Amino acid sequence: MSEDTTQTRTAVVTGASSGIGAATARALAAQGFRVVCAARRTDRIEELAAEIGGVAVSCDIQDPDSVAALAAAVPTCHVLVNNAGGAIGADRVEDADLDDWRWMYEINVLGLVRVTQALLPALRASGDGVIVNVGSTAGRWAYEGGAGYTSAKHAVKVVSETLRLELNGEPIRICEVAPGMVRTEEFSVNRFGGDQAKADAVYAGVDHPLLAEDVADAITWVATRPSHVDIDELVIKPRAQAAAHKVHRS
Ligand code: 8X3
């Protein structure tokens, strides 16, 4: 089936206030989508929405009422990009702060499920919905100090697989895009509690870590395949990164 280019397609992007989310909102808008930019930081998403001709909806994905309000604003949704997420800390399991783990499970997993539940009627209403869950290579491998984040991202992979099984037969595709090392303004700085030196060390000597735009390009490609083409998973890393522990540094 070829795409119906006569109707404006709506995309919802969570975590659209920065990084991969903002880049994805721009990339989808460039492909003709009406993009609903959802995030907590209203000033940022309003600026972005004005730039791309989209719509800003303030949304905290941890708050059921806030997510319900997002769903109410989007009766029809062709593409949902569950991008909001993040990491805190790099402690060994032995020393881990369970409140950090709880936050990571909340934001990366429960928030994604909450938004998906709320928007499934709108995805069905589109007649041809695509859900792109932004996972991570942290959902493919373990590394020391990463278990709070890697276990949450493994959950994103499994939730994506389960949803694909459960929705089989419906006109909704589910893809997990799993990036490796991406240098964004906030991910590592947030992870290390604002410590810029620690954040910079993550990328030290790496020739071209991925940029948010590289991942946005992959998400947009997934979201614009013909209706019968389902991309289950897409792992994307910089050339310099072969595995968690195998990163070429000059
Ligand atoms: C980020 C990838 O390697 O920092 O999602 O966990 S990693």
Automatic annotation (TrEMBL):
Gene3D superfamilies: NAD(P)-binding Rossmann-like Domain
Family from the record: Belongs to the short-chain dehydrogenases/reductases (SDR) family.
Keyword annotations: Oxidoreductase
Pfam families: adh_short
Gene Ontology MF terms: oxidoreductase activity, acting on the CH-OH group of donors, NAD or NADP as acceptor
Name of this protein: SDR family NAD(P)-dependent oxidoreductase
Top-rank taxon: Bacteria
